[in-house]
Amino acid sequence: MNRRILCGCLVVALAGAVGSAQTKTTLSGKCDKATKQESMSIPDQQGHMLTLSQGNCTSTGDIGGAQGKSGIYSEHADVKGNQARNWGVYVETFDSGDKVFYDYSGMWTMNNGMPQSGTNKWQISGGTGKMKGIKGSGTCKLTGTGDGGSEYQCTGEYTMAGGAMSKQ
Questions:
Q1: How far apart are CA 35 and CA 139, in angstroms?
Q2: Which of 142, 153, 155, 168 is geometrically suited to a Cys-Cys bond with 65, CB 3.0 to 4.6 A?
Q3: Quick one: which of 88, 64, 92, 69 has its CA closest to 77?
Q4: Going from the N-terminus, what domains does the chain have, and what CATH number goes with each?
């Protein structure tokens, strides 16, 4: 069920054009339905379950000259009827091979176990290569795709450590 809840993804991937000062950014993308999912029913009410899922995403955006390439989300969620709360980690890989790590949490409205719309908040927890030391936070608006996946539109702000990359 919640395997589609992700990515609120993620979210994900919102580092934005890179500079040494705080920079506003926008990013969009699509996450496929989860490739791995486990769920456990909770017997306190009808339709209550906990889920654990992982899946893949693509993103559109330029971050300091590096193009977003792919991402993987890993999350857990608490689903109660047509509402779901999720928490997770999103790892975005850029064409340079550098990565950015995002922690996120959000809410989804569901219909028959499929995500319809949602929002999340994200915070960058680290990165590799030229993205090492990046910090940032923001929000995403999420839309279910009908096949168990989701699309996201995110905005936020970030700072690079030591000006490792400049805005192109």
A1: 25
A2: 168
A3: 88
A4: 2-163 (2.40.350.10)
Q: What angle do CA 87, 90, 94 make, to 5 degrees?
A: 165
- Asked if residue 4 lies in contact with residue 33, where contact means CB atoms within 8 angstroms, the answer is yes
Reported as a single tens digit per residue, the pLDDT across 92-150 is 998 999 999 999 999 999 998 888 999 999 999 999 999 999 999 999 999 999 898 99
Minimal CA–CA distance to 95: which of 120, 123, 132, 58?
Answer: 58
Q: Which residue has the tokens 């993103």?
A: 59
| φ, ψ of residue 85 in degrees (nearest 5) | -115, 135
DSSP state of 32: P
Residue 158 has pLDDT above 90, yes or no: no
What is the secondary structure of 58-78 as a DSSP string?
Answer: EEE-EETTEEEEEEEEEEEEE
Residues 53/36, Cβ–Cβ less than 8 Å: yes
Contact predicate 53/37, CB 8 Å: yes
- The answer to whether 78 and 84 have CB atoms below 8 angstroms apart is yes
pLDDT digits (tens, 9 = 90+) for 101-111: 999 999 999 99
